[in-house]
Amino acid sequence: MGGSCDLSGWMLGYLRPFPTSSTPTARTVPPASSWTSDCRGIDAIHLGLARDRAQRENEEALGTLRARFESLTPREREIMIQVVQGRLSKQIAYDLGISEVTVKVHRSNLMRKMSVRSLPELGRMADKLKLVSEKT
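Above: the chain sequence. Below: its structure as tokens.
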């Protein structure tokens, strides 16, 4: 960001004559150190705006993920959590008392509803949604 500050318009204001003067005289130009501090202030404002924009985009993306997750049925949510924990379809089926084919159908549906094509992508979404607690 340093050096990106454009003070040309600001400097021109100092070179224009005073409106109350009968003879045109130029204002004195402030020392370069004040230009630098103004530039830092403008750069800080730009940095703050960029950070705010990024935060808003992240919040919007997280809201979209939450909406997708909320669109899942309770069974699909349950299976999603177990899938991202690394459990196999046959293990999930045994624990839930359903067939492995049923688990695969639910997994296929949740992948479609979450708009993902791979299990690693599903895992990243689960991390963002904080669905799986960290193992210590």
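Residues 1-17+26-70 form one domain.
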